[in-house]
Design a protein that fits this description.
Layout lengths: L5 E4 L4 E10 L3 H13 L5 E4 L8 H4 L11 H4 L14 H14 L6 E2 L2 E9 L4 E8 L5 E11 L23 E3 L14 E5 L3 H10 L5 E6 L5 E4 L4 H8 L4 H25 L1 H16 L5 H4 L12 E4 L2 H8 L2 E5 L2 E5 L2 E4 L4 E3 L2 E4 L12 E4 L2 E2 L7 E2 L3 E2 L5 E3 L8 H22 L4 E3 L22 H5 L19 H7 L10 E3 L1
Parallel strand pairs: 2-3, 2-7, 3-4, 5-18, 7-22, 8-17, 9-10, 9-17, 10-13, 11-12
Antiparallel strand pairs: 1-2, 5-6, 6-7, 14-15, 15-16, 18-19, 20-21, 23-24
Length: about 500
């Protein structure tokens, strides 16, 4: 493939030009590059990545025990069989991604240490101009591209979200966020408090419990967890029968997706039954004397926030053994030797870990302009969570909360490749989405319905996200099982698409 097919002169400097510019070399960017290679061979493209290596989350997050909270049969790509345990470590996921890069000659298209600072669309030239700064030298690089494929994820990699608690400056120990885990942190013999109750806390606590004097998970309110073996019986059985791994991958994916669909529907139709089953699993590990009602019984119905899978019940086994404990309370303030709780209790700590979530970054903290006018994505309406009204030649990958993120990477990639092929066949240089006449009285709503799904990082920054309508094509439904049929059937000549 011919990579940089020509140079394009801009007012600022000569730049390399590509048919497609992919932002980010994480799970989305690498998957998208694969589909572009296979479906539109001969397309010139480049991947710009801020970090020094590929992997996104799986390379930047280095806290002990980091692992997926989705199974790798569906979090892995549709085109590459996953042959390991369903819940995988970051190291295993990076090795898997590295094979995709090597097998498909993607490495030569990636520019590492390139932080994008601005992206400007010119209607006169039908081009995006992208400015990036190399993080090692500070040099400014300018690229132009016909099409922009945003695969950078949805949160700020440089820093996690830590609330401002009173007295944090008084604490004599260390305060760390899992997203920026320090290499020199020694927890041996230390009293550790992990603030949070999500997948990160549930992963971190059992993985540091053996080293610490004691580790406490401090949560304001409980969350839901699913427990199970880190193995899938049908996959093990098919391997014993020496079935081809590609077949196993597809069979197991279908089985998991069928079961996830049934579980999601059950959460909506019979939430009390699901709640009883989820909490019953925890009670079975912790025993009848543990206060599961206080510490592991959420106030909301299942699936209003993401449900983390706890492989082999390791978090709860750590609690049962006494190496770890859970405190459900609110923080009054930090003090020199720990955290003063609103109940009046003092929680002593040498190290405090704030597993308190992400800072949302709607589109990579990039300054976007359309024909010289600054673009606020919060003012746009999204077409299926992929395109935005008034933003030409750009698609965004935003995955699923209730299913694996990567399922949508594959769906969006197929859509983009079909759209680019359609533009070529029409001789179009530009495409954008626009509300149709029949859409003009449509209610314009926030990106996601809080009654449906309401994680903190979305609720805190909803204003940064595009708006949605009340029609399926004008929203990101979070429903893979519907979208897997609807998105491939999208009529690219529908009035919502405007070509030029």
């Amino acid at each position: 493939m011919n990579v940089a097919v020509r140079s394009h002169a801009t007012a600022k400097q000569a730049s390399e030009h590509f048919d497609v510019l992919i932002v980010g070399a994480g799970i989305s960017g690498i998957g998208s590059a694969y589909h572009l290679e296979k479906q539109l061979p001969g397309t010139s493209y480049v991947i710009l990545e801020t970090q020094a290596t590929f992997g996104g989350t799986w390379s930047t997050h280095r806290y002990p025990g980091i692992r997926s909270d989705s199974d790798l049969h569906t979090f892995g790509y549709s085109f590459k069989p996953w042959v390991g345990p369903p819940i995988a470590t970051a190291e295993e996921i990076l090795a898997y991604m590295n094979e995709v890069i090597d097998d498909n000659d993607i490495a030569r298209h990636i520019r590492y240490k390139h932080k994008i600072v601005s992206a400007s669309w010119s209607s006169e030239q039908n081009l995006w101009t992208i400015e990036a700064v190399t993080t090692d030298t500070g040099e400014t690089k300018t690229f132009s591209a016909n099409f922009l494929w945003m695969c950078q994820g949805y949160y700020r990699h440089s820093e996690g979200y830590t609330p401002e608690w009173k007295g944090m400056d008084r604490f004599k120990g260390r305060i760390v966020h899992p997203q920026t885990w320090p290499d020199d942190l020694d927890l041996k013999g230390k009293k550790v408090v992990v603030i949070g109750s999500g997948a990160t806390a549930a992963t971190l606590v059992p993985n540091i419990a053996d080293d610490c004097a004691h580790v406490t998970m401090l949560q304001r309110s409980p969350t839901y967890f699913r427990l199970g073996r880190n193995a899938i019986e049908i996959a093990e059985e098919l391997r014993r029968l020496q079935v081809d791994e590609a077949w196993i991958h597809e069979i197991v994916r279908r089985k998991i997706l069928f079961e996830q669909d049934a579980f999601t529907k059950l959460c909506l139709s019979k939430p009390e039954q699901v709640k009883k089953e989820l909490i019953g699993q925890i009670s079975a590990v912790l025993g009848p004397d543990y206060d599961v009602e206080k510490h592991f019984t959420p106030s909301y119905r299942p699936w209003r926030q993401r449900i983390a899978f706890v492989p082999d019940a390791d978090l709860f086994k750590g609690i049962a053994s006494g190496k770890a404990s859970v405190v459900t309370d609110e923080i009054e303030c930090f003090v020199e030797n720990g955290i003063q709780l609103k109940s009046g209790k003092l929680l002593e700590a040498d190290v405090i870990v704030t597993a308190t979530g992400f800072n949302l970054s709607a589109l990579g903290d990039i300054a976007f302009e359309i024909d010289g006018n600054p673009l606020a994505f919060g003012d746009t309406v999204t077409y299926r969570g992929m395109m935005f009204t008034g933003v030409p030649n750009m698609v965004w990958v935003f995955g699923y909360f209730r299913a694996s993120w990567t399922l949508r990477v594959d769906l969006v990639a197929d859509f983009v490749c079909r759209l680019l092929g359609h533009m070529k066949a029409k001789g179009a240089k530009k495409v954008e989405v626009k509300l149709r006449p029949e859409d003009h009285n449509m209610p314009i709503l926030p990106w996601i319905d809080p009654e449906n799904f309401n994680p903190g990082y979305i609720m805190r920054n909803m204003d940064l996200l595009p708006k949605r309508g009340d029609k399926p094509e004008w929203q990101h439904s979070q429903d893979y099982w519907t979208e897997k049929d609807e998105i491939p059937r999208t009529d690219l000549d529908d009035a919502a698409f405007v070509y030029g």
